[in-house]
Design a protein that fits this description.
The chain has helices at 19-32, 67-70, 73-90, 125-128, 136-154, 163-170, 222-232, 250-259, 278-283, 299-306, 319-323, 337-345, 350-362, 367-378, and strands at residues 7-12, 39-45, 61-65, 95-98, 112-117, 157-160, 180-182, 209-213, 240-244, 267-269, 287-290, 311-314, 328-330. The protein is of the alpha/beta class.
Length: 382
């Protein structure tokens, strides 16, 4: 019997340096290693992130470190424009996937190109205006918006991770639906509350606490959450607010300055937390807060739902697309809104009611399903 030639997919992981982009690929690769498929994958990495993928030992999954493209964004761009097309041709790639969102590579004959929208900030005028008019961040987001749009027009297909993000791009590319698909992210199984991990175990925070985990940035609204908590803390018996997440810019410094004179028994910022420590931190909280106003697919919201704790969530899209009726909503920029949401969750029975709702809603998100849909879209069987 003639051996069937496996299809070859090349994935560009240069931009998966931290956070959601890296987690996205790691979960896809973990699921890929569990299944039998007529597919080989070559992953292009850089010097900074190759070690993040060392756990994968699968003959159908090969990682190639590209030193030239690792130097800086200019060298990476030059490699993608001038070298990558010949690389794809020489290894006879059937498809090329750039999950970083930018597609600037001319495809060789027979190779399809795909990308994904994972960053909504360039498309949110409201959020861009939070940065100074002449700031680097605002200029960068302006440029990214048009690079993304050009990439979506050039690509053979685009993956969106929420209906909301596709609808926003549709305002600029009316026929985008014809060459795209919506595939939600899954939830890491470590976050899912089960009978085996239901019991509280060692956690880095003692006592009764509300928890908000996210990077410290303007669109995450930590400042607004702090203001609200200070106004309502006296009405919440023996409960503190815990903030966790890395500082990535001056906003984090401003948050720490706000808290410099605040009793840590009222609000405690514990900094960046190891990813493996988050499940217990979630599961031992009284309730969870998510105040972000700009997301594509809110991974942290999904993880909070999976913990089986009640969630108080921003009412900005796309959060309602994912939380539906399983969470209590508030407007992070409206005075008193968070306070009213907390009062509601503290009413008799609502802690347990919304804990159950969280668990039920979380069951809709599965990485096995996400990976299957993703690989079938990038390289369909027929």
């Amino acid at each position: 019997m003639e051996k069937i030639k496996k299809k070859l997919l090349v994935i560009n992981a240069f931009s998966a340096l931290r956070g959601g982009g890296q987690t996205y690929l790691i979960n896809l690769f973990e699921e890929f290693c569990k299944i039998e498929t007529n597919l080989n994958i070559v992953v292009l990495t850089n010097c900074s992130n190759k070690n993040k993928f060392d756990r994968f030992k699968n003959p159908a999954l090969k990682f190639i470190e590209v030193g030239f493209a690792s130097k800086n964004v200019m060298f990476r761009t030059l490699w993608e424009v001038f070298k990558l097309p010949f690389f794809l041709r020489d290894i006879q790639a059937d498809a090329y996937f750039s999950p970083g969102g930018i597609m600037i590579t001319k495809m060789p004959t027979g190779c399809k190109s795909y990308t994904v929208l994972r960053n909504m900030l360039p498309f949110e005028n409201r959020e861009r205006k939070r940065f100074s008019f002449f700031s680097y961040d605002r200029f960068r987001l302006f440029v990214l918006k048009y690079l993304f749009l050009i990439s979506y027009k050039i690509s053979d297909g685009v993956i969106f991770i929420s209906n909301y993000s596709r609808n926003e791009v549709k305002k600029f590319i009316p026929d985008i639906k014809e060459k795209s698909v919506v595939i939600y992210h899954g939830i890491n199984k470590d976050f899912i509350k089960t009978k085996e991990n239901n019991e509280s175990s060692g956690t880095i925070v003692d006592g009764n606490y509300y928890l908000y985990v996210s990077i410290l940035d303007s669109y995450k609204a930590q400042k607004e959450v702090i203001y609200e908590w200070l106004n309502i803390a006296k009405n919440i018996d023996d409960c503190l607010l815990v903030l966790a997440g890395p500082k990535i810019n001056n906003y984090g410094e401003q948050v720490e300055e706000m808290l410099s004179n605040v009793d840590k028994k009222t609000i405690n910022y514990i900094g960046a937390i190891d990813y493996n420590a988050l499940p217990n931190l979630y599961k031992n909280a009284r309730a969870l807060i998510f105040a972000s106003s700009c997301e594509c697919c809110p991974n942290i919201l999904l993880e909070k739902l999976a913990s089986g704790r009640p969630v108080i969530c921003s009412n900005k899209m796309p959060m309602p697309e994912f939380g539906q009726d399983a969470v209590v909503y508030f407007d992070p920029y409206k005075k008193g809104s968070l306070g009213r949401a907390i009062q509601f969750i503290e009413k008799d029975g609502n802690i347990n009611k919304f804990s159950l709702k969280s668990s039920i809603r979380a069951s809709s998100f599965c990485w096995t399903d996400t990976a299957s849909k993703t690989f079938n879209y990038l390289l369909p069987d027929n």
